Every structure is written in C-alpha cells, then in structure tokens.
Amino acid sequence: ARADDATTRAMAEVNRQHEIEMEEVERQVNEEKQFLQREVDGLEVEEARLMQERARAVAEANRQHEIEMEEVKRQIDGLRGEKQAFQHEVDALKEDKRRMQTQLYYKQRAIDTQRSQAEERQREMEQLRQEKEEAEQRVRETEQVLRNTEAASQEAERKLEEREEVLNIPP
Q1: Which one of 82, 83, 164, 170 has the minimum C-beta count within 10 Å?
Q2: Within the chain, where are the H helices?
Q3: Residues 6+ apart with CB under 8 A from 164
C-alpha cells in the first residue's frame, strides 16, 4: 500500500507538475496571443491610418488634378480666344491688303491713263511745235519773198525812174 501511495503521490506530483507546466505553457501562449493581438491591433490601426492617409492623398491628388485640369481648360479657352482674335486680325489684314491692291490697281490705271493722256498731249504739242516751226518757216520764206519782191519792186521803180529821167518824162 505504501508503494501504491508513493506511486499515487508520484503520479499526483507528476500530474501537478504537468498541470503547472501546462498552465505555464498556456500562460505563455496567452501572453504570446495577447502580444500578437496587440501587434495585430497596432497593425490594423496603422493599416487604417495608412488607408486614411492614402485616401486623403488620393483625394488631394484628385483635387490638384481637377485644379490643374481647370487651369489647363482656362488656358486652352484663353488660347482659343487669342487664336480667334489673331484670326480676326489676319482676316482684317487680308481685307486691308485686298482693298489696297484694288486701290493700287485703280491708281495704276489712273496713272496709266494720265501717262497716256500726257504722252498724247506731248505728241500733240510736238505736232503743234512742228506746225508752228513750219508756219514760222513759211512766214520767213514769205517775208523773204516779200523782201525780194519789195527789193525787186524798188529796183524796178528805180530803173523806171532812171528811164523816166533818161526820157525826161514828167511824172
């Protein structure tokens, strides 16, 4: 019976030691679980914080992108307006050029007409000058003929007077 008691006690001691060890292992497992749970909780909190941060960053990036897109749209609209203004200017310049070319054409025609008229007047004046010179030449020739005739007439009168003197014919 003593041996049974000793065996029972030994078995009880082994069981008790085993229970102590099991409790220790369970305590360590629980501590490890709690530690890991705290780690998981911390990681979840960090993950949630990072996700919020990411969401804020994405929202800010989207907001910045929208602002930039609005600015780009404004710039495009401004450039379109400038392009339209330049196109109006180009159209106005083309119209001015067309108008000036038309004016130049008519001025050139007027100049050509005036030049033709001036050349015609010059020809007429040249013809009149030639006619005047011819008329003056005829006048000179006629005057010469008159002078010659006058001289001849005077010579004839002188000869007549000489004959009359010779003949003593009273006048």
Answers
A1: 170
A2: 2-167
A3: 171
- Between 129 and 2, name the one with better pLDDT: 129
Is 171:164 a contact under the CB 8 Å cutoff?
Answer: yes
As a whole number of angstroms, the distance between CA 130 and CA 110 comes to 29
Q: Is residue 1 helix, strand or coil? A: coil
Per the CB < 8 A criterion, the answer to whether 151 and 145 are in contact is: no
* Plot region of 152 (φ>0 → left; ψ -120 to 50 → alpha; else → beta): alpha
pLDDT digits (tens, 9 = 90+) for 128-160: 999 999 999 999 999 999 989 999 999 999 888
Half-sphere exposure of 46 (CA within 13 A, CB side): 6
Task: Give the whole-angstrom CA distance, residue 138 versus residue 132.
Answer: 10
Res. 171 pLDDT band, cuts 50 70 90: low
Count how many residues are written for the chain: 171
